[in-house]
Amino acid sequence: MVEVLIKSNIVRLGTANIANQLTRCPSLPSLSSVNKALQGLLITEQRYTAHIAEIIRRDPSLTSRLLRLVNSVYYGLSTPVNSIEEAVFYLGVRQIRQLAMVTPIIEDFQRLTKQCDFPWRDFWRHCIGTALLTREVTTAVQFASDESDYVAGLVHDVGKIVMAWTFPEHFTEIHRQAALGTTDLVQLENEILGMDHAELGARYLEMHRLPDLMIKSARFHHRPEMADDFQPTIAAVQIADLLVRSENIGFSGNCVAVPRAECFTASGCQVLFPNAREGENAIAQASLSRTLEQIPNMLEGMV
Fold it and tell me: Cβ neighbours of residue 237 under 8 Å, at least 6 residues apart?
């Protein structure tokens, strides 16, 4: 075990103190009426491109992300797309639904990240990459029926944002130590702050009455086998998180290297594929590897 040397002015806090200070962290703004209208339209049977485009136009941030994504290298279009209607046509309902969720969630949390100097854009690339890959993992085992798995992947590291806002000095010291790459981030958080980002994020989401899946995804994404509910989705988040880290897509804040092989021996693999044969595992791994190759280009258009 690596000994952690903490700056003298940083004091490890008790659980009660952490819980008390956590109440000062601002609540999540509710989604705007524009995004609610878009979500409602996308889940209806009649999805008219013109109607979707009209709603998107009301949200400049969503419009910008939509056009950046469709014109990214990922789509490889020879002629730039400048029309929202065209963008909706190329992207399809699934991608737009995901964008509609990413945009308000990022904007909700961006104001909480100003307390600390940290590569937040790379952090969001890690979170969105994890969300995209979580959907691919859940698709591989055929239990995804809505976008809840995507959202679970997107908010799995929310505790790091909450920590940066509520405990900026501890956060800065933790990531000063983490940059050495010798000690896992969770260990540093527990030793320096007194609570890791997984538990902190879960308590924050619980405090603001977010859905159980989001709470448990935050709490158990490093140990999905401990969850009493939603184990398959949380296992998918764990695998996606590790794979994105192994490929250095974005930056999670954890500088300890993750070998690719370790991703497929994680506890989440046993949850999802307890009786899988070697050939089936190889097919699943190859499919996820192909998606991993595409994610950096997809992210260029999203964040």
Answer: 130, 134, 149, 152, 153, 156, 217, 221, 224, 268
Residue 241, token pair as written in the block:
């998180």
pLDDT digits over 75-105, tens only? 677 788 888 888 888 888 777 877 777 777 7
Distance in angstroms between the alpha carbons of the first and the last residue of the chain:
37
Architecture of domain 111-303: Orthogonal Bundle (1.10)
E strand spans, the chain: none
Instruction: Say whether pLDDT at 244 is over 90.
Output: yes
Helix (H), strand (E), coil (C) string for 37-100: HHHHHHCCCCCCHHHHHHHHHCCHHHHHHHHHHHCCCCCCCCCCCCCHHHHHHHHHHHHHHHHH
| Cβ atoms < 10 Å from Cβ of 132 | 24
pTM: 0.82
